[in-house]
Amino acid sequence: MLKWILSVVLAALSLSAYSFSVNGSKWPGGSTHLHVGISGLSASGKAWSDAMLRAAQEWNDKTPFDFTLLDSYRDPCNGYRASATSSGFPAGPGDDVNGADFNSTVCGNDFGTSVLAVTLVYTESNQLGASDITQADIVFNSNSRFDIYDGPFDSNRGTDFARVALHEVGHVIGMGHEFSASSIMRDRIGNLSTLQPDDIAGATTLYQGYTRCPVSRLDFGRVTGALNSGDCTVQQLVGGGTDTSLTDVYQLDLAQSTRVTLNMNSGSLDSVLVLMNSRSEVLEIDDDGGTGCNSQIVRTLPAGTYAVLANTLTSATGDTSCGKNNGPYQLTARYDSSALIGAGRNTSLQGGRSSATFAGGVTTNGGASFSNRVTPTQRFDVLGRITVDPAHRGRQGFLVIAAILENNQVYVRNPLGEFVPLGSQTSPVPFTTSKILGATEDVTLLGQAVASTFGMTDTSVRFLIGYGLNSNPDELYFHDEPINLLVSP
Predict the structure, then answer these.
(1) Domain span at 297
(2) What span, in angstroms and rounded, lies between the C-alpha atoms of 473 and 396?
(3) What is the pLDDT of residues 217-273, one digit of tens each?
(4) DSSP alpha helices (H): ranges in 63-150?
(5) Contact at 8 Å (CB) between 1 and 132?
(6) What pTM was estimated for this model as a whole?
(7) 387 and 482 in a common domain
(8) Total number of domains in the chain
(9) What whole-number distance in Å separates Cα of residue 40 and Cα of residue 339?
């Protein structure tokens, strides 16, 4: 449902107090366009459009918000019509275009006493309980006397249009009025003409996205967690709304386009999965796509960074057959790919830099396709590939393969091909194979293996591969995201 927010600036001097104000409504993804092409010049010969552009650009430069600024003109009243109700609010569908201009009325409604400008904001409900801004237009009162100038407020010259525009653009992005002498968003115009720390903090709070909550890394495989009292809520995460359900936030990084399957299973809570992009735009929400009250999202995602929210419903909306709206859960991330997938960024034991890249995957069909999940009785290979730094190619070195079990026990593969506990090795960097390093090293971590023969029926194993040089045997170049093997019935 669309609703209107009416924002005004009053032509009076200073007030006190200090606290930024946001209303929870915001633009999905923290970005929008704005047409700044207001025609004409001020009494001092400066273009209104230049002042509008500078105002929006200052919010761009100093906050997380991102305007695409267009020098063309759009009528802010296009698509609106005067309301016949006593409220005086304009009505109409809008045109999904953000414009600005002078007008003698607020699209047919009176401005009211001392009102210099009005920002009209369209919102619609969001799946996470807050409101999305879908359109915002600024109407400046042409009955008022404006000029463009620097320095203190000067009533003899009229009102400085630039600082009014800066204030109104703040309303466009979702900022509310403040009652602080140290904020451009205070409800009365004064001597301030630039964004203040309070303004910047408010916009940052509104648009810092899913990082408003603690964020854990999500690798392919599975993690266990719990939603408990004191955890972050959706209301805190989105900066508004009424959704007080609990949520844990995970970040998933993809080096290439990948088909991803996410499952959230729990025997005690009503599972909800939320998938967001890096700008915190909701891509998908699922409540019961899995079995019972479990949730599932299956989606092919381009390379990039994503947020996965392990969420539940509030006690007022949850499925009572699923039990409580807090408790433990298991989050599983699987992939399907036609090629080995990237294994994150390169790193090293001693902080050395390299351009090496790493990839890996699990295959049950000889490399025709890759995933990370196998059943206990399937025969599979775990394969890895190292693209060696050009400076290291052709030099005497060694390869290392390690496996980390769910209980965090670490095993390394010795030169005989056996995985043995790390603690049984005497060298700082236990090597698997000694060799002259090539440009690409293809590594078979496990070959034609069957999980049940190792006693594995429902578990997850993380593999790491790396290489080093004999000239510096204590250094190891490897990757920061494991190659995952998920064994499940």
Answers:
(1) 212-336
(2) 11
(3) 999 999 999 999 889 998 888 877 778 889 999 999 998 999 999 999 998 888 999
(4) none
(5) no
(6) 0.79
(7) yes
(8) 3
(9) 58
